[in-house]
Amino acid sequence: DTAVSQTPKYLVTQMGNDKSIKCEQNLGHDTMYWYKQDSKKFLKIMFSYNNKELIINETVPNRFSPKSPDKAHLNLHINSLELGDSAVYFCASSQARTGGNYGYTFGSGTRLTVV
Amino acid sequence: GENVEQHPSTLSVQEGDSAVIKCTYSDSASNYFPWYKQELGKRPQLIIDIRSNVGEKKDQRIAVTLNKTAKHFSLHITETQPEDSAVYFCAAAGEGTYKYIFGTGTRLKVLA
After folding, report:
1. Cβ neighbours of residue B112 under 8 Å, at least 6 residues apart?
2. Chain B residue nearest residue A56, CA to CA
3. Average pLDDT, consecutive stretches of 10 residues, N- to C-terminus, chain B (112 residues)
4. Do B43 and A45 lie within an 8 Å CB cutoff?
5. Nearest 5°: phi and psi at A11?
6. Cβ of B96 and A109 within 8 Å?
7. What is the dihedral angle through the alpha carbons of B8, B13, B17, B23, rounded to the nearest 10 degrees?
8. A5, A30, A43, A56: which to substitute to probe chain B, counting the most B Cβ within 10 Å?
């Protein structure tokens, strides 16, 4: 069974459209993340939720809105897509808890291409 | 702000040789340092991690060393194999911060 699953794997869309990416984890982790990986492979955090509470909200255009209906799900909605939004978006989860950090488990990524 | 520098950006080694990737972090509160391997078109996967109360950790052909005073840590891969070819990322995190700061990645090529 896939531990962190993202859908869709590929997304090609036109500028100005609105799209969503879904993420689900079955590891029982408390914390979930969205990372953006650009063409130079740089991994930059966008958002993080811990038990459905938003705990990290980096400098991201407000066209990007995360939603966590429960601690196993974290979705990303993007409004008015722009060419610069083209990237691979990774969802991740971790068993982060007070007293120590734990490694992330990443989803397989969503390659978003805006044309 | 928090920053993690990673060097080199690309590294080519002959099969069987060793490879070393170095990272330097800026936040002295960082206490957890994971390393990820990302093969082409795939997700990053955790390969080894080290916490600040430990100076070195080994797992078969890979090892990580940490120098807290100098604020740098390194990944060592011995007896490299073609399947080690990938992009490797270091990261640093402070306790309970939930956020990892990733390095810029090292593309390792192992030549057969």
Report:
1. B15, B82
2. B99
3. 90 98 94 95 95 91 96 97 97 82 96 92
4. no
5. -145, 115
6. no
7. 10
8. A43
